[in-house]
Amino acid sequence: MKNHHYKTTIHWTGNKGTGTSGYRDYERSHTISAENKAMIEGSSDPAFRGDRTKYNPEEMLLSSLSSCHMLWYLHFCSEAGIIVTEYTDEASGIMAETANGSGHFTEVTLHPKVTVAEASMIEKAEQLHHKANEYCFIANSVNFPVKHIPAILVKSEK
Fold it and tell me: Do 86 and 40 share a structural domain?
């Protein structure tokens, strides 16, 4: 087995002067960075006193699942001779909050909208979503189902 190593830095930027002296006395703002990459501004979900203008961990999880799936999907399409000209996914997920305040995702659904060059490519293009899910590193790392509801369009029919 081959191992790959990743490193990110999270830096809390929400100290309003008194640190975490009280639940309402600090912001949930932080930055996410990695060497030689643009910084991402993060916070918690607004339901947990976060800044709605910044990405929250739940959105980042959805984005990770969606982008991993897309990258594998495009790879398999290129190998199969399926010409994808556009790809958009509006991922959605359900997180259940428990009585003690913790929580967990119960499912994520990807809604990839894929445009292919020719109608003859539609059937195989639909099938390759299953293969992409089997190979996606992130989907293989979570303990909830990652569902797919793809829509395949033909370039000339858009």
Answer: no
Locus of tokens 């292919």: 116
pLDDT tens sequence across 98-153 = 999 899 999 999 999 999 999 999 999 999 999 999 999 999 999 999 999 999 99
CA 23, distance to chain mean position in Å, is: 29
The range of the structural domain enclosing residue 92 comes to 57-154
Residue 19 has pLDDT above 90, yes or no: no
d(CA 128, CA 84): 12
User: Is there a contact between 62 and 108 (Cβ–Cβ < 8 Å)?
Assistant: yes
Same domain, 83 and 134: yes
With beta carbons less than 8 A apart as the criterion, state whether 26 and 15 touch. yes
Q: Please, which residues have CB within 8 angstroms of residue 101's CB and are 6 or more apart in sequence?
A: none
**What does pTM read for this prediction?**
0.89
Per the structure block, which two tokens stand in for 42? 């993060």
Are 75 and 125 contained in the same domain? yes
- 10 Å CB burial of residue 127 (0-12, 13-18, 19+) is middle
Instruction: Quickly tell me which residue has 């590193």 as its tokens.
Output: 137
Tell me: do 37 and 95 sit in the same domain. Answer: no
